[in-house]
C-alpha cells in the first residue's frame, strides 16, 4: 500500500470508504437509502475547501482503501460551510424523503448543522477525519496517515488540532491516544480529543 495526496478524482472512492466505515468503523451501506448523504457531510466539503490537507491510501491494485482529511482553520471552514456548502447540499436533498433513521438524522443535521464548541476550536483550530476499510486496518497505516496530516498542519504553524469522536467508539479512542490525543471536552454523544501540534513529536 502507499499514501499519496488526495485529488479531486478520488472523491467517489472516498465516498465509498466513508459509507463502508460509517457505522462506527463498520459497513453502513445497509443503514442508508441516500448513499451520498453521509459523505456530503464528512468528506466532500474537505475536497471542496481544504484538499491540500487530504491524503488517500491505495492498495496494490490502486484502489483507495482509506483517507485522512484535515482542515487547518475550523472557524473559516465552518463559515464556508454555512455560506456555501450547506445551502448547496440542502438543495440537493430538497423534497427527498428519508427512508431510514440514519437518513433522517443526516437530514436533520443538514437542516441545523452543529458547529464545534467555540472553546474547542479556539484552543485547537485544526481538525480532521480518518477512515480505513478493514483491509487497511491493523498494520499501522492509520498512524502513518494521521502523522502525515499532523506534520503538514504543524509545518504551516497550526498550534493544535481536535477530533470529534463518538463516545462509544472505544477503538477510535485507543487509536488516537497512541498519537497523543487527550480528552478536552464532551458534548452529547461526542467526545472531543485534542493535541498541541507544536509540541507533538513525529
Summarize the SSE layout with pairings.
Layout: E1 2-5, H1 11-20, H2 37-42, H3 44-49, E2 54-58, E3 64-71, H4 74-92, H5 101-111, H6 118-123, E4 126-132, H7 141-155, E5 160-166, H8 170-178, E6 182-187, E7 190-196
Parallel strand pairs: 4-5
Antiparallel strand pairs: 1-2, 2-3, 3-4, 5-7, 6-7
Describe what you observe in this structure:
This protein is α+β, with helices and mostly antiparallel strands and 202 residues long. The protein has one domain: Aminopeptidase (3-Layer(aba) Sandwich). It has eight helices and seven strands, in the order βαααββαααβαβαββ. The chain has helices at residues 11-20, 37-42, 44-49, 74-92, 101-111, 118-123, 141-155, 170-178, and strands spanning 2-5, 54-58, 64-71, 126-132, 160-166, 182-187, 190-196. It has a seven-stranded mixed beta sheet with strand order 1-2-3-4-5-7-6, with helices on both faces. Strand 6 (182-187) and strand 7 form a beta hairpin. The longest helix is centred in the middle third of the chain and has 19 residues, at 74-92. It is globular. The mean pLDDT is 91.
Quick structural gist:
With about 200 residues, the chain is α+β, with helices and mostly antiparallel strands.
Keywords:
single chain, 202 residues, alpha+beta, Aminopeptidase
What's the helix-strand series? Answer: EHHHEEHHHEHEHEE
Question: What is the helix tally?
Answer: 8
| CATH architecture classification name | 3-Layer(aba) Sandwich
Order of strands in the sheet with most strands: 1-2-3-4-5-7-6
Tell me the CATH topology.
Aminopeptidase
N- to C-terminal separation? 21 Å
Largest sheet: 7 strands, mixed
Amino acid at each position: 500500500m502507499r499514501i499519496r495526496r488526495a485529488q479531486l478524482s478520488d472523491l467517489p472512492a472516498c465516498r465509498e470508504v466513508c459509507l463502508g466505515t460509517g457505522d462506527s468503523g463498520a459497513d453502513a451501506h445497509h443503514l442508508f437509502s441516500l448513499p451520498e448523504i453521509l459523505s456530503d457531510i464528512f468528506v466532500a466539503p474537505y475536497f471542496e475547501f481544504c484538499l491540500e490537507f487530504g491524503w488517500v491510501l491505495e492498495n496494490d491494485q490502486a484502489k483507495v482503501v482509506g483517507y485522512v482529511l484535515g482542515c487547518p482553520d475550523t472557524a473559516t471552514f465552518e463559515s464556508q460551510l454555512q455560506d456555501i456548502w450547506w445551502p448547496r447540499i440542502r438543495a440537493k436533498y430538497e423534497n427527498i424523503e428519508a427512508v431510514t433513521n440514519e437518513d433522517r438524522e443526516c437530514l436533520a443535521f443538514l437542516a441545523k448543522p452543529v458547529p464545534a464548541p467555540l472553546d474547542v476550536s479556539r484552543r485547537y483550530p485544526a481538525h480532521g477525519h480518518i477512515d480505513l476499510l478493514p483491509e487497511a486496518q491493523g498494520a499501522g497505516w492509520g498512524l502513518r496517515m494521521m502523522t502525515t496530516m499532523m506534520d503538514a498542519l504543524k509545518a504551516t504553524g497550526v498550534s493544535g488540532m481536535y477530533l470529534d469522536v463518538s463516545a462509544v467508539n472505544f477503538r477510535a479512542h485507543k487509536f488516537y491516544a497512541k498519537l497523543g490525543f487527550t480528552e478536552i471536552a464532551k458534548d452529547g454523544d461526542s467526545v472531543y480529543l485534542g493535541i498541541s501540534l507544536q509540541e507533538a513529536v513525529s
